Amino acid sequence: QVQLVESGGGLVQAGGSLRLSCAVSGRTSSNYAMGWFRQPPGKEREFVAAISWSGADTYYADSVKGRLTISKDNAKNTVALQMNSLKPEDTAVYYCASTARPFSLGSYYPYDYNYWGQGTQVTVSS
Question: Which of 18, 33, 87, 105 has the maximum number of C-beta atoms within 10 A of its C-beta?
């Protein structure tokens, strides 16, 4: 059974940085696209960033471009989200997600992801 576990969330002041990590277990191959989504308080889940199976292609929501960076370590079967210049509006529960189709390119849409982590809270104070 594939499981995703996020870590690295916490409380940070505006302008600060955090690094989220997501570890994938239950499958030996890392040839799958991964994504990060977030759900702000009282709002629906939204796309943050995605990365293709090889790590060669990345996609970002306009609101995070230039501040957040997604990366993938296929040897360790992990994906990370480096978050810099954080703003109070980045406050949300952040979820890691993975496709079930190998060699996929990544997607902006949650319905393209088959596996989800439990989420990690990120709070940015002003």
Answer: 33
Backbone angles phi, psi at 63, to 5 degrees: -70, -15
Residue 97's nearest CA partner among 76, 112, 83 is 112
DSSP summary character for residue 67? T
- Taking only Cα atoms into account, the Rg of the chain, rounded to an integer number of angstroms, comes to 13
pLDDT tens per residue, range 55-108 = 999 999 999 999 999 999 999 999 999 999 999 999 999 999 999 999 999 999
Q: Is 75 exposed, middle or buried (0-12, 13-18, 19+ CB in 10 A)?
A: exposed
